[in-house]
Structure formats: structure tokens, C-alpha cells
Automatic annotation (TrEMBL), chain A:
Belongs to the queuine tRNA-ribosyltransferase family. Its EC number is 2.4.2.64. Substrate binds at residues 105-109, 159, 202, 229. It is an enzyme of class 2 (transferase). This is Queuine tRNA-ribosyltransferase catalytic subunit 1. The active site is at residues 105, 279. The gene is QTRT1. NCBIfam families: Q_tRNA_tgt (TIGR00430), tgt_general (TIGR00449). GO terms for biological process: tRNA wobble guanine modification. Residues 26-379 form the tRNA-guanine(15) transglycosylase-like domain.
From TrEMBL, chain B:
It comes from Physeter macrocephalus. Zn(2+) binds at residues 351, 353, 356, 382. Belongs to the queuine tRNA-ribosyltransferase family. QTRT2 subfamily. It is found in: Cytoplasm; Mitochondrion outer membrane. The gene is QTRT2. This is Queuine tRNA-ribosyltransferase accessory subunit 2.
């Protein structure tokens, strides 16, 4: 029996977020998500395992790294292997044998990234499958139906996504349509007790449009909100302003999921701005190109300078890669055709992201988040005052000064 | 190092090699296999996933073809290749070539042998070869040798003779250089038996090599297509008959289950484990049974299953050539086939490996169809474990005098 959202009923949605601590200066929060497959500490970084796999690492390795929530993608899984098969396999959890939480995207983002294959109407998004040429219509109802079959703990509404570089009436059209699609998703959702449907705030880089979207969507009865339509080609100055605007208007007692953000600096700044959840392909993708993430940036391990560097990637890192291997060995292995090289780096980069979030959280709980931010920027940029100006401005806007 | 034989049955040697390794307290079972690696790492596997596999052999095989070009780095590292690759507790054997990727022929001279790395050809004289081994510090290493007598179509007596002469010369040079190297006192040179397909030369190679203070013997040049191995089995028996009992016999390029058994019957002790890797690369899982004393009801089930799969494979085998230039065998199933799309069974029922305990054929099928990296990881974990289990079964069969049954079972599954 679907729950029909009424604009004034704000109390009946499940409260899945418990706030544990708040920074007294900035908008940073530490919390705990209570999800069907276990608790998740926030702020949290969620690695992306698009096609029911975290690239070359096993479910057991991912669990051992401390990951408690990761992403799957409805667009890809909807095509291969398809929702019916996954349902037979006892949902996505059963299919990939992942015991912890899963979040599935609606498939909407592929509209932007694969736009040559799609057409957007009020009905939904018409895709042509790149695998067999078949045409499929991804409507709000169909997206929710697939996600219901996948059984993920958090599901995303289908939103009308436009690239952040697009301007003009299309942005407004997409924003209003996203609200209508949210209502259709809520109506179509068959399992609100088992799966948490999040709304996605749109409105591009237009403050008025975004404010309208916020006002409307927060009237709907959903357990969480995502901030979408950013992390594309927009300038960082515009980016942070839209994030800050969004968090200022989103309810405090519900999680804020900033989609597509994963660079370390961005994560830290956006936590300060009041975001709780993040996802990005960057750490896992860059690993497969031989790049290891470290507190000072990254190491391009295929480069000759690492040929005889017998130190681990990061002496402070407790991940299996850093415990056992040197940069020199990884350099050698990266120049071979043994895929193990990629897996070593994937493990390390995920460990790096999770460790960063853990450290951020601890600093919030221990009431020293602003100091943490200053230390972080100092390590990353040599001096806190050398951090990019957009980040300095964003942090200043929430009361954190760097120099 | 001490090789003690528990028993010898119909030419098959069952025993243990003790007092191995730098600390002298490692043991290896024979017949056995070595862990196949590429550039010092099991294919697709990190330390974490490798150690989830049951029955990993005590000794790993490294290839000079993947490591020779890193000589300088290893020399500067000083602490040996075992530590460099993150396998300090493993016994290490360094072969010249990679059994999976044969190198171009025609580069052996009286003074040097070449291997092919990522960066191209590395030419090695005996001195350079020994300098590289000094940097690697393996427990055992294949001596520099001329393995090209069987490269051409018709192996001439002249070429066979040359391969023996050259290899003996290399061996004597390397032994001399080893005497002068402190670092290599703890490493053992494995003498290489050459001679092509010429019986006289093979016998000469065996007898002469056996006179030298080598730690063991590598039987080179017996690899090839299944038919070529068969024609060489007679040669193999004659060769091993000339070798001392108390030193191990390794063979290169032979890894398929049926061929392994043939060679064990002809006095071979140790094998390379690249067959499970080749199966992995073609998206296949090893499923052949080595349970020669199953419960009666299960026999029927397994037989039916095997027969069905063998028939299927026979029809489609011709079209299964892969990038490894190796056709799929009847010891495996090809998970890319549509029939596995909704198969929620494990790869092999009853298998204890990580993949079979956690995943299904349907999931592997999906990973293969979507080209996901995890497919290789999971298949490698299963295929290695299955293969190591096969060797365990051989040892148990020998112990209980049931090798004939195991052989018959394997033979039934070979096409």
C-alpha cells in the first residue's frame, strides 16, 4: 500500500538518522544511519560498485576495510543482468553476497553521461540499450520497480538531470519535473518499510530554482535528501554556494547526501557545509590508472621516480597494501599485465577514503573539527593559506578560517 | 635439502622434500606443484585473496622473463625477491621462461640466452645470469640452458646435440660462479635436461647433468600439443631412469591433469600450475572430479553431469580458441555460456573455496559478460584451489594404492 505524500505530513517518514555530535562553528555533523542492513557512521564515503561488484575486490575484502554501505547502479543492473534475475537471486544483496548496506542510484545520471542515447519526456527517459539496441523507457515507476527488485537499503528517486553547465529554461523545466517525478516515485514505492527513498534536490546553479526545489521537496515525506545536479562541469565557486544553500534549507534531522563528490578537499569542505553522505567513482577509478591517494595528494606509481622507492604508499596507512608492499613493487607490478596491481591500489584508495571520513567524524565528536580542517589543508597544500580560494571562502562562510 | 621417498609405485614417487628454505625448516610434498606467478604475484590475487585459498603450495614459481629487466632494482633492494614481492615466507623457484607465453626462438647462442620482458629482450651470459640470481636470491633456480632443440618442426640430431652441449657448458660456468658467490650458497641450481627428441642426446644430457652437483633436474622440451607429449613419454621414462632417486625432478610446460598423471608415472615430481590460470583467462572454471571414491549415488550424478558437459564441449570445442592460444578442455565449464545465466549453484558442489562458498555460477556469468575484474579474481581463487586439491588427491591415491582408480576417473573426463 503506497503512502501518498501530503505536503504537511512531515512527521511520519522514518527517522533513519541519529545525530551524535555537531560542530559548534560550522555545519558539520556526526551521526549514525540506522539502515536495514546495519548502522552506518556519518559522515560517510560510499564507494561505487556499479555492476554488482566493487571492481577487483571481493565482498570480504570490502567488509574487512570497514565499508558498511556502497553503491550499485540501476541503469546498468537494469540492463544486465536485469531485475528479474536479481530478484531470483534474493535481491542485489543476495546476488553479489554483500551483507551490509546498498544504495542504488535511479539511473537518472546516465541521462547526462550517456545523453546521445536518450530522450527525456514527461513520461520518463527513453534509452537505447548500448548492448542489444533495444529501446527501454525508464520512468519514475519503472526505476522504483527495478530498485524494489534490487532491494537496496536506500533508493533514489528518478530525477530529470541536466548538466550543471546548461543554462536557460531547460533547468527550470527539469527542476519542476523532478518534483513531479518524486511524487510519482513515492506513489510507486512498494517497500517503504524495507527501502528508504531519497529525494534529489535539483535546480542547477540557479539559487532561486534551487530554493524553490528545496521548499517543495522538503514538504514530501521522505527519509533523506540528496543534493543533485552538481559535481559536473561547474566552477567550484558556484558548486559550494549551491551546496551551502541546500544544506541551509534541508531538515537537520534527516541525512544530506551530496552525490558525485569524492576528492578529499571537497569532502572535508562539504562536511563543514553540512553534508553527511558522499559517493564518487574517483578513488576506485584512479586506482586502476595506477594512482594512489595520500594525505598530500596522490602518487602516480607508474612513474619512474617510484622504481626504487622501497617505502609503502603511506607509512601511516593500515591497509593490507601498505602493510605488505612497497611503492617499488607496485611500480613493477603496474608495468606488468597482472591485474593484482590494480587491486592493491583499489584496496588502498578505499581505505584512504574511509580513514579520512573516520578522522573527520572523530574530530567532530571530539569538538575539534575546525582544527582538523586546518591540519588537513596544511598537509594537502603545504600551508592552510595555500588551499584553493573556493575552499577558503566556503569554509569562511561557515565560520572556519584557515590562516 | 633431503628428499625422502615414502614409496614408489609403478614408477610414481611419493615422498617429501625436507629442510628447505633459508631457515631449513620447510617441507614440500611430492608429487606436487608450484604456485604460478606473473611478475612475482599470483595472477589477479593480492596477499589477502591468495591466503584464502586452501592448499597453496609451499613453493612458488617466479619467471626470469618477468623479473630479469628489474635486476637493478632488486640489486639495490638487496634483500632478495621474496621480500620484494611480499612473499618472504614462501619457497621460491626461478624458471627461465613463462610456460604460458613462449618466447621467440632463435636467440640462444653459445654464450647467451635471452628472455623477453615487458621492455623487450634481455640477453644473459652466464655472468649476467648469475648476477641476476644474486639479486633475486631464490631457493632454487633453473640453470641457464638451451631449450630450443624442439622449436623447429623436425628436430635435427645436430640441433639436439648442440642443446645438450651448450646447456652443460652453461651449467659448469654457473656452478663455478656459484662457488664464488657467498650470497648464492643457500640457493640450489636445477640442472636442465635437454636433447630434443633424440634418445641418444637425451640420455647423454641426463647422465652428464647428473654428474654435476645440482640440487635437482628440470625436464625441458617435453611440452607442446597433447600429441607431442604422448610421443615423448617414452623419452621421458628413459631420461628419469638415468637420474638419481634422491633429487627432485621438475617438468616445465606440462600442467593439464591427464598429462600430469602420465608424467608422474614416468618419475616426475613437480609441476607448474599454469593450467588453472589459463582456464581463468578463458572465463572457465575447473570442474573435473578427482574424487575417486565417491558415495555411490553421487557417482551416478557426477557421471551424468560430466558426460553431459563432455558432449557439449566436444561439439563446441573447435571454436573456443582464446588469447592464450589454448583451447578449452573437458576439465572445465565455460561460464560465459548462456545456460549459466540463472544457475544459482556454486561452481563445483562441495568445493570449499571462497568463490564456491560465497558465489554462484550466475554471478560469475554476470561478471564475465560485463567484463568485470572480479571475474578473474574469483575464478583464479577457485581454479587454484581445485587444482591444488587434485594434487592432494594424487598423493592420497598413491598412499592408499588407488592411483589406477584416479587415473581412470581423470581419463574418463579427458576428451
Amino acid at each position: 500500500m503506497a503512502v501518498v505524500a501530503s505536503p504537511t505530513s512531515l512527521e511520519s517518514a522514518p527517522r533513519i538518522m541519529k545525530l551524535v555530535a555537531e560542530c559548534s562553528r560550522s555545519r558539520a555533523r556526526a551521526g549514525e544511519l540506522r539502515l536495514p542492513h546495519g548502522p552506518v557512521a556519518t559522515p560517510v564515503f560510499m564507494p561505487v560498485g556499479t555492476q554488482a561488484t566493487m571492481k577487483g575486490i571481493t565482498a570480504e575484502q570490502l567488509d574487512a576495510l570497514g565499508c558498511r554501505i556502497c553503491l550499485g547502479n540501476t541503469y546498468h543492473l537494469g540492463l544486465r543482468p536485469g531485475p528479474e534475475l536479481i530478484q531470483k537471486a534474493r535481491g542485489l544483496h543476495g546476488f553479489m553476497n554483500w551483507p551490509h548496506n546498498l544504495l542504488t542510484d535511479s539511473g537518472g545520471f546516465q541521462m547526462v553521461s550517456l545523453v546521445s542515447l536518450s530522450e527525456v519526456t514527461e513520461e520518463g527517459v527513453r534509452f537505447r540499450s548500448p548492448y542489444d539496441g533495444d529501446e527501454t523507457l525508464l520512468s519514475p515507476e519503472r526505476s522504483v520497480e527495478i530498485q524494489n527488485a534490487l532491494g537496496s537499503d536506500i533508493i533514489m528517486q528518478l530525477d530529470d538531470v541536466v548538466s550543471s553547465t546548461v543554462t536557460g529554461p531547460r533547468v527550470e523545466e527539469a527542476m519542476y519535473r523532478s518534483i513531479r517525478w518524486l511524487d510519482r516515485c513515492i506513489a510507486a514505492h512498494q517497500r517503504p518499510d524495507k527501502q528508504n527513498l531519497f529525494a534529489i534536490i535539483q535546480g542547477g546553479l540557479d539559487a532561486d530554482l534551487r530554493a524553490t526545489c528545496l521548499e517543495e521537496m522538503t514538504k514530501r515525506d521522505v527519509p533523506g535528501f540528496a543534493i543533485g545536479g552538481l559535481s559536473g562541469g561547474e566552477s567550484k565557486g558556484q558548486f559550494w554556494r549551491m551546496v551551502a544553500l541546500s544544506t541551509s534549507r534541508l531538515p537537520k534531522d534527516k541525512p544530506r547526501y551530496l552525490m558525485g563528490v569524492g576528492y578529499a578537499t571537497d569532502l572535508v569542505v562539504c562536511v563543514a557545509l553540512g553534508c553527511d553522505m558522499f559517493d564518487c567513482v574517483f578513488p576506485t577509478r584512479t586506482a586502476r590508472f595506477g594512482s594512489a591517494l595520500v594525505p598530500t595528494g596522490n602518487l602516480q606509481l607508474k612513474k619512474k621516480q617510484y622504481e626504487k622507492d622501497f617505502r609503502p604508499i603511506d607509512p601511516e596507512c593500515a591497509c593490507p597494501t601498505c602493510q605488505k608492499h612497497s611503492r617499488a613493487f607496485l611500480h613493477t607490478l603496474l608495468h606488468s599485465d597482472n591485474t593484482a596491481a590494480l587491486h592493491h591500489l583499489t584496496v588502498h584508495n578505499i581505505a584512504y577514503q574511509l580513514r579520512l571520513m573516520s578522522a573527520v567524524r572523530a574530530s567532530i565528536v571530539e569538538k575539534r573539527f575546525p582544527d582538523f580542517v586546518r591540519d588537513f589543508m596544511g598537509t594537502m597544500y603545504g600551508d592552510p593559506t595555500l588551499c584553493p580560494s573556493w575552499a577558503t571562502e566556503a569554509l569562511a562562510s561557515v565560520g572556519i578560517t584557515l590562516g | 635439502m633431503k628428499l625422502s621417498l615414502t614409496k614408489v609405485v609403478n614408477g610414481c614417487r611419493l615422498g617429501k622434500i625436507k629442510n628447505l628454505g633459508k631457515t631449513g625448516d620447510c617441507t614440500m610434498d611430492i608429487p606436487g606443484c608450484l604456485l604460478y606467478t606473473k611478475t612475482g604475484s599470483a595472477p589477479h590475487l593480492t596477499h589477502h585473496t591468495l591466503h584464502k585459498i586452501h592448499g597453496v603450495p609451499a613453493m612458488a614459481q617466479l619467471t626470469l622473463s618477468s623479473l630479469a629487466e628489474h635486476h637493478e632494482v632488486l640489486a639495490e633492494y638487496k634483500e632478495g625477491v621474496g621480500k620484494f614481492i611480499g612473499m618472504p615466507e614462501s619457497l621460491l623457484y626461478c624458471s627461465l621462461h613463462d610456460p604460458v607465453s613462449p618466447c621467440p626462438a632463435g636467440y640462444v647462442t653459445n654464450k647467451s640466452v635471452s628472455v623477453w620482458g615487458v621492455g623487450g629482450r634481455v640477453e644473459m651470459t652466464a655472468s649476467k645470469f648469475m648476477a641476476i640470481q644474486q639479486a633475486l636470491q631464490p631457493d632454487w633456480f633453473q640453470c641457464l640452458s638451451d631449450g630450443e632443440a624442439t622449436c623447429d618442426e623436425a628436430t635435427s640430431i645436430k640441433r639436439a646435440r648442440k642443446s645438450v652441449d651448450r646447456s652443460l657448458l652453461f651449467l659448469d660456468n654457473c656452478l663455478k660462479l656459484q662457488e664464488e658467490s657467498e650470497v648464492l650458497q643457500k640457493s640450489m641450481i636445477i640442472g636442465v635436461i635437454e636433447g630434443g627428441d633424440v634418445m641418444e642426446e637425451r640420455l647423454r644430457s641426463a647422465r652428464e647433468t647428473a654428474k654435476r652437483p645440482v640440487g635437482g633436474f628440470l625436464l625441458d622440451g617435453f611440452q607442446g600439443t597433447p600429441t607431442t607429449l604422448e610421443t615423448r613419454l617414452h623419452l621421458l621414462s628413459s631420461v628419469t631412469a638415468e637420474l638419481p632417486e634422491h633429487k627432485p625432478r621438475l617438468i616445465c610446460g606440462v600442467s593439464q591433469p591427464d598429462e600430469v598423471l602420465e608424467c608422474i608415472e614416468r618419475g616426475v615430481d613437480l609441476f607448474e600450475s599454469f593450467f588453472p590460470y589459463q582456464a581463468t583467462e578463458r572465463g572457465c572454471a575447473l570442474t573435473f572430479s578427482f574424487d575417486y571414491q565417491p558415495i555411490p549415488e553421487e557417482t551416478l550424478l557426477q557421471q551424468n553431469g560430466t558426460q553431459e558437459e563432455v558432449n557439449y564441449v566436444d561439439q563446441t570445442k573447435k571454436s573456443k580458441t582464446t588469447s592464450c592460444n589454448q583451447e578449452m578442455t573437458s576439465f572445465e565449464i565455460n561460464l560465459k555460456e548462456k545456460k549459466y545465466q540463472e544457475d544459482f549453484d556454486p561452481l563445483v558442489r562441495g568445493c570449499r573455496c571462497y568463490c564456491c562458498k560465497n558465489h554462484t555460477r550466475a554471478y560469475l556469468h554476470h561478471l564475465l559478460v560485463t567484463n568485470e575484474l572480479l571475474a578473474g579474481v574469483l575464478l583464479m581463487m577457485h581454479n587454484f584451489e581445485h587444482y591444488f586439491g587434485f594434487f592432494q588427491a594424487i598423493r592420497e591415491a598413491l598412499k592408499s594404492d588407488r592411483l589406477a582408480q584416479l587415473k581412470e576417473l581423470i581419463h574418463r573426463q579427458a576428451s
